[in-house]
Specification:
By secondary structure, the protein is of the alpha/beta class. A five-stranded parallel β-sheet has the order 4-3-5-6-7, sandwiched between helices. A five-stranded parallel β-sheet has the order 9-8-10-11-12, with helices on both faces. A two-stranded antiparallel ribbon has the order 1-2. Helix 2 runs parallel beside helix 7 and helix 7 packs antiparallel against helix 8. The longest helix has 20 residues. Bound molecules: fructose -6-phosphate (F6R). The site of fructose -6-phosphate has 16 residues, from helix 3 and helix 11.
Length: about 350
Amino acid sequence: EKGGYKHFMAKEIAEQPLVIADALRHYTGGGQSLRLPEELDFASIDRVTLVACGTGSYACHVAKYWFEQIAGLPAEIDIASEFRYRDPVLSPASMAVFVSQSGETADTLAALRYATGKVAQVVSVVNVPTSSIAREADLALPILAGVEVGVASTKAFTCQLTVLALMALKAGLDRGRLTPEAVAKQLAVLGTLPGLMSATLGLSDAVAQVATDLAKAQDILFLGRGTMFPLAMEGALKLKEISYIHAEGYASGELKHGPIALIDAQVPVIVLAPKDGLFEKTVSNMQEVMARNGKVLLLSDAAGIAEAGAGTWKTLTLPQVDPLWAPILYALPAQLLAYHTAIAKGTDVDQPRNLAKSVTVE
Ligand code: F6R
């Protein structure tokens, strides 16, 4: 059942190149054009509101950057438990998107019901196509991750990101921001992800080595800018869920507004920094950590490590990836770090204490 893996989580991490390739195949015509349902039309939408809980909410956070950058479409995000109690101002011309692996999360379902009738279209991005959140939406987009058993979400996260990426491209096309050729070009780049993911999974042994040290930490910080900010929060969530080590994800630029007070030689700081337009800024924040004896683990590509790896505690070199789609790739080392740290600590990876796979109460 675990296909030769020790844990469902390991199996589900390893499946990602395959399931991402499946999702891309399903939602594109030969990898050249988008094949999303006709009803998904962003042309006359004035805003997209993305709502989810936990890991799904970090996928929404990444998607916010994509919708705004790729399609110039205002995007707003909220966690489901806050959304429905804050009297959200919903435009009747907006689209509300609910992201859920299980499709049964009580707060997300209630948020979907709250938005129904108040917005132009309610869309769900779900893994379980027969779920309540799939059935009650105007339009449900399956993420095609296959059954996810491990309580900590892994392949569902990268499949959510993939479907949201395709939605953002569709928004760009519908709104005249992208030509069909430009979309085809991005789809070709997305098509390289499964291969890059397989290469990244090859880092597993190196991650396991680092994890023996991380397992001794009391607190761990994750830092990132741009779409690496939600990835930092996802990395921290995954780590605390299964290793029970206290971890927080911060936007690198927020460091000096408080969290830098936590830095000492005992606190590992994991910096997610592909060599993109924000790289220099993230590195300067990283150097502030190093100046205070912080133990930096830098995750970047070869160019980034060559430029900024000196003086860090450890580095992990990922394949080079288009910065736009980097979050889909950088999810993998975040998952592997949590997995191997939990293994090093001897905690129950697939069934962590106090957690349920599907949260059907508020
Ligand atoms: C984290 C995790 C949870 C879920 C959250 C939402 O690894 O699995 O944070 O992401 O409970 O669940 P779904 O996506 O089923 O609505």
